[in-house]
Amino acid sequence: MRHPSRSLSHSLGSIFLLMCMALTSCAAVTSPTPSHTATTSTVNGGIWVTPVSAEVLAAAAQGQWPQYNDRPVWVGVIAQQPVAVVGIALTDTGTQSLRDYNGEPIAAVTVTAHAYAEQHLKLTQTQYVTPNPEQNARFEREAAEQKAAYRVHSPVTDTQWPSFQWPLKGRISSEFGLRRFFNGEPRAPHLGIDIAGKTGTPVLAPAAGKVARIGDYFFNGRTVIIDHGQGLFSMLCHFSDIRVREGQAVTHDTVVGLVGATGRATAPHLHWTVSLNDNRINPALLFSEPAIKASVR
C-alpha cells in the first residue's frame, strides 16, 4: 500500500465512478466525501454508504439516529441526498441491515469476508505477549475506558463528512485487519494502520474534531482519541510526547503528538485506528472506498 502525499479535498458533487480506487502518491491528503450513490456491497472492516429519507435525517437532528446493530450511525447530506455512513465490524458478514430509530429496516448491504493476511512478530518484551495478572487487569481497565469513549455519539452539528488527511507521511508498516501472531501465539487482529516514522516527528490531527481522551496505556502507549462527530473517532498511539489536552478543539494543522515507540511497539511508528458507530474500520478506506470519491483541491 502506498501512502498518498498530495493534498486532496472532498467533493460534494462527485458521483460513484470507480469500483475501486487505489491510493496514489501526492504531497498532503484530505479525505474523500461520501457519494449519494449507495454502496450495495462491502467487506468486513469496511464502510457502507446508503441513502436515507428526509424524515430519517430530520429524526437524527433530534437525536433519533438510525441504528446498525443497535448502535447509532453517522447521518448527513451529500450532494443534496441524505445518507447514512456506516462502519462495518471485522466480525460482520452476510446480509446486514440499517434500521430507523423505531427498529424498522430501511436498507441492507451484503458484507463479504475479506481474506486479511497474517503477520508474525517477534517481541523481546514478553509482558506484551503474556501479561501477568496485574498487567492484564490494567489492560482490561484501559480497554473499557477506550470503548466507552468510542460509544459516545455526539449531536449533529455539521452534516458534512469530515475532511481527512494522513496524520503522518511515511511507509505503511502494518495494514488494517492483519491476523497477528506474537512470538508464535495468535492475538487479536490489527484494528488500525501503522505508519513508520522517526522518533520525534510531528503527527497532525487526521481531521477537525475535539480531543475526547488522552492516556498512557499498557499496549497502546501514549494515546490520543479525537471525536470527529456522530460516532466517528480517530485513535493515535505510541507517541513519545503528547501535545494536546482533553477537550481541546483540533484542526488539520494541530500537532497532536510526536512519533514514538511507547507501549507494545517494535520500532517508532504511529498507529491510527478509526472507529465509526463503535466498529473499527480500515482508515485507508477514507481515501479509497468505492462509494467515496476524492478530488484534487
Please render the helix and strand layout as text.
Blueprint: E1 8-10, E2 33-34, E3 41-43, E4 47-51, H1 54-61, E5 67-68, E6 71-72, E7 74-78, E8 81-87, E9 94-99, E10 105-112, E11 118-121, H2 133-150, E12 172-174, E13 179-182, E14 185-186, E15 193-196, E16 202-204, E17 209-217, E18 221-229, E19 232-239, E20 241-242, E21 249-250, E22 255-258, E23 269-276, E24 279-281, H3 285-288, E25 292-296
Parallel strand pairs: 3-10, 11-13
Antiparallel strand pairs: 1-25, 2-25, 4-8, 5-6, 7-8, 9-10, 12-15, 13-14, 15-23, 16-22, 17-18, 17-21, 18-19, 19-23, 20-22, 23-24
> Low-confidence segments, ≥5 residues, pLDDT <50?
1-37, 292-297
User: How many H/I helices?
Assistant: 3
Overall geometry: globular
CATH superfamily of the domain at 118-281: Glucose Permease (Domain IIA)
CATH architecture of the domain at 118-281: Distorted Sandwich
Q: Name the helicity range.
A: 10-25%
SSE succession: EEEEHEEEEEEEHEEEEEEEEEEEEEHE
**What top-tier CATH class of the domain at 118-281 fits best?**
Mainly Beta
- Counting copies of identical and different chains, the oligomeric state is single chain
Distance between the termini: 23 Å
How would you state the average pLDDT, rounded? 81
What is the strand content? 35-45%
Describe the overall structure:
The protein has 297 residues and is mainly β. It has a domain of 164 residues: Glucose Permease (Domain IIA), CATH 2.70.70. The protein is built from three helices and 25 strands. Strands 12, 15, 17, 18, 19, 21, 23 and 24 form an eight-stranded antiparallel beta sheet that branches. A hairpin with a 5-residue loop joins strand 9 and strand 10.
